[in-house]
Amino acid sequence: MAAELVRDPPVHIGPLRRRHLRRVLAIESQVYPTPWGLSLFLSELALRTTRVYVVARIGREVVGYAGIMLAVDEGHVTTIAVDPAWQRRRIGTRLMLAIAREAIARGATALTLEVRLSNRGAQALYRRFGFAPVGVRRGYYADTGEDALVMWAHDVQTRAYAELLDAQARPVAGDTVVEPLRRW
Q1: What is the span of the domain harbouring residue 138?
Q2: Which of 54, 69, 97, 153 is 20–30 Å from 15 (CA)?
Q3: pLDDT tens digits, residue range 92-103?
């Protein structure tokens, strides 16, 4: 008897809405020592022209989220998190693809972020997206006093960077459905 092909369920990437915040806050409290609160998320969502926040859903369940702040021609990744029960399934890759592509569509020519020095897994993800370390911010994380590694990806408007994004998308198993993200 032939083995059945088991397909991963489709992952839907769409705008983060108020109705998602309870689940986002639950994930936030699982993955960060000092999680963002409801008021911070609400204030970020109110900045529609300079912020993009997305959720990853499987069925109706929110399994991850990410955000990026846009300033002139730069995109600053503000947050990305995946429910620990759904990690190692390329949810983070899908979220990074969505926010990177949206930042580029809105005119970003470079992307940046800070990541804990101890978070090697996240650093590996960012390196796959062309981010390279450029410095360290000492004591950046006030909750633990941990240093942050500052990383940048430059020339993200180029064909070479578009090919890098396509290369990241290819090994992602299952379908990804990206809903329209623009809300202005």
Answers
A1: 11-178
A2: 153
A3: 999 999 999 999
